[in-house]
Amino acid sequence: MRVVIVGASGNAGTALLRRLSTESDIEVTGISRRVPPDPYPATDWHAVDVGADDATGRLTSIFQGADAVVNLAWQIQPSHDQRRLYETNVLGSRAIFRAALRAGVSTLVQASSVGVYAPGPKQAFVTEEWRRTGVIESSYSRHKALVERMLDEIESDHPTLRVVRLRPGLIFQRVAGTEIGRYFAGPLLPARLLRFGWIPVLPDHPDLRMQAVHADDVAEAYHSVLRADVRGAFNLAAGPVLDPAVAARAFHGVRVPVPGVALEGAAALSWWLRLQPVDRGWVRLGLKAPLMSCDRAAAELGWRPRTDALTALRELVTGLAERAHTSSPPLRGDADMPGRAGGLLRGRLPGTGNPY
């Protein structure tokens, strides 16, 4: 089986490469905007910017003869360049889909997200049938919804193409610590203090309830999808649900009640001032995204997470404290990048530049 992974150098991509490297009958081709300086063994790499005008043609050539294409390509930063995010996330996904159709690929697997869902319950769990209109204030969520809408049309027009969508919660692993710190916290985070496993103050809001999953468990789900004859969408998350009470017990912190409008306002102002890289849309998404039932993944893929969400979170926090990283461009640990203190000193502000 020949599998092409688009966006193979990122958080989920590197985990999937690790998983597939153990399969002797799977030939892997990796695509990223920049090829890692120390690429994974037994992976044939190609450098392609999926948001470029010539992406469809270049991808079509690479996809020839592939049995499956897995699209993990997605940009979260730079948050202050919405045009760039749209080009990669929406137009880039369209280029990948068109190339897969032109190359005659039989299986297309898309990395979707809990972010595709409309606002939903925080005390119950929704299935894959929940409305997919996104949370309008979040560009990330809007882009996920647009991409899934494209997939709906492709499935209708090409019924013989096997289309699968995986919708995970937050994806954590230790080596993504520096990346996630850069993308979501910024240079003012005192990450080194986290090495004591203590977060002194935690904002408390009843809707701050989210799900997470370890990157290796997500990779296992992709592997299962490639092996099984399944179609459609699968939610992926591990228990327990992460909320302020769980985090306070785990990190010995004090919960401080904060209204949702204050959380959004603080994010909006600090983002506008270039103090941190996350706009208010991410806070809105955290408050409004529903909790997901993963029963379908368990029943049809036999998927059950090996790492619980709290352990995955602890691992991520350790990675943040230890500045864990890899040589892969999105995961690298250069001190002068946007989102790091060294970058701030050089005028590279959070939410700017292209880290992919």
Characterize the structure shown.
- The longest helix has 22 residues, at 82-103.
- The protein has a 7-stranded parallel β-sheet, with helices on both faces.
- Helix 2 (55-63) packs parallel to helix 3 (82-103), helix 3 (82-103) runs parallel beside helix 4 (139-157) and helix 8 packs antiparallel against helix 9 (280-288).
- Helices cover 38% and strands 17% of the residues.
- With 356 residues, it is of the alpha/beta class.
- The model has no long low-confidence stretch (mean pLDDT 96).
- Helix 3 (82-103) links the parallel strand 4 and strand 5 (107-111).
- The protein has 2 domains: 2-170 and 213-238, NAD(P)-binding Rossmann-like Domain (Rossmann fold); 172-211 and 241-291 and 307-344, no CATH class.
Task: Offer a quick outline of the entry.
This protein has helices at residues 11-20, 55-63, 82-103, 139-157, 177-184, 215-227, 244-251, 260-272, 280-288, 295-301, 309-321, 341-345, and strands at 2-6, 27-32, 43-47, 68-71, 107-111, 125-126, 162-168, 170-172, 201-204, 210-214, 232-236, 238-242, 254-257, 291-292.
